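Problem 3 from the worked examples.
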Amino acid sequence: MNVSNLQVWHRVYKEQLQCR
């Protein structure tokens, strides 16, 4: 697992939550 990948996933997740 890559730490960078996790950070990107977290950012997308947060952005999607705000978009909702």
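Problem 4, a separate protein:
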Amino acid sequence: MSVVLSLLWPDMPVEVVKLPEDEDGLHFGAFIEDPLGKDDLVAVISLFVEPLPIDKVPVHSANGSNGALLDNDPVLVPSEVFAVRFRKFACRTDAQGQGVGTALLKHAMHFARSELKAEVLWCDARVSSADWYSRRGLSQLGPKFYKGPVEYVCMRTLLTEDSHDVRCSTPV
């Protein structure tokens, strides 16, 4: 929790950041050997079986003859795909730019697909990090929104046979 707290919410007490549902998640970490030969936790990510909040899916509409969504007639309905959400994904500043976060996200994608049988992996991403996620295959779902003073956007990626081959702009 200290990596997440120090990077994502440095001014918040741990009681505010820790949620009851954290116990239901699957938590993963990336470690780098320190100069003394000990494993040093540098990045974390947590997975939760949780449906997409909303999704635009084609539904029969009085205005659409083939069931397609019309620009002036969006219909929001719950998604029916099996989805896994990742949260509290953080990489220590001194480990960023080395491929650690990408490798951990790649592992989470592969695990969600192969072990949990998820079809979609999604998150609420800080807008400041949205480009990083886009370069790794996630796309925006829905409008931007705020959690407190921080602007977010929901992002997702479809998990396919080759989704563990995450597109990446930095070498891993």
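Solution to problem 4. The longest strand covers residues 39-49. The mean pLDDT is 79.
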